[in-house]
Sequence to fold (309 residues):
Amino acid sequence: MKTLEWEDNKLKLIDQTKLPDELTYVYCNDYREVIVAIKDMIVRGAPAIGVAAAFGMALADLHGEDLDKAADEIKAARPTAINLFWAVDRVLNSDDPLKEALTMYKEDIDTNLAIGRHGAEIIEDGDTILTHCNAGALACVDYGTALGVIRSAFHQGKNIDVICDETRPRGQGARLSVWEMQQENIPVKLISDVASGFLMSQYKINKVVIGADRIAKGGVVNKIGSLMVALAANHFHVPFYVAAPLSTFDMNASVFDTEIEERDGDEVRYYGGCRICPKGTEVINPAFDIVPKELITGIITENGIIDPI
Ligand code: MRU
Fold:
């Protein structure tokens, strides 16, 4: 099962808004439908957004559309994950958009397997690992970055437990990461977002492994809540790792210049379809935060484990 696939000249996506209850698919016939799928988070997670965007460019090329215009529109879908911009530019600069998108599709899987192999070295038998959001197969073409590390350690026969925090407001931890772990019988427990500090204080978490939407000078951008987890981990001396492909790095920029996506306030006002605050309540809803490099133990890439930049 792949998060996205090229099928009959269409992009086939798992509809991640329907998980965990329904495993259904959405087909994108043109690049504008890919943009809607990215905006509505039918496909989400930095590497998956990147590869979907690459296929969006391939669709634009297939239909003889203006590629520069398509590139600008696709890049405007979501602002924070750098993989989106990297992927669109890579296809734009290639001779054959579809061939390039298919290459990136394959590369993504190989990259994640390599991240998994390197990352498994830091996981010890008996570890309980906290992960935030979903940096799993569903956030990539397959296998995942942070969950790829966990998968790899588990398949090596290490006895591990995984803790997913719910990851309000969109619930990627509860809905997607828990589901992914359960598909492979990897032991997993769900906690509320506010419980991780307490569990660390009780020595119940040995390591944190998360993904990244952008890595630049000074730190890492990832799903909102990552910073709180990193602060707690630092206080209780729990090693805090980030797993990400090199395509997520922006070596020349400061991480603090990253545009942080602000999403619709209803994501916070409503929980499971029910309003949880007085009508008309003003909301601040940043989708990502920035973990400064001082709080990061190491970054697990396809080329090995490195220090934050
Ligand atoms: O808003 P999302 O669900 O696209 O955010 C996803 C994350 O923050 C992931 O942790 C990140 O993209 C890394 S995925 C390998």
In short: The chain is about 35% helix and 20% strand. The pocket of MRU is lined by residues 44-47, 81, 133, 135, 139-140, 145, 172, 211-213, 222-223, 287 (CB under 6 Å).
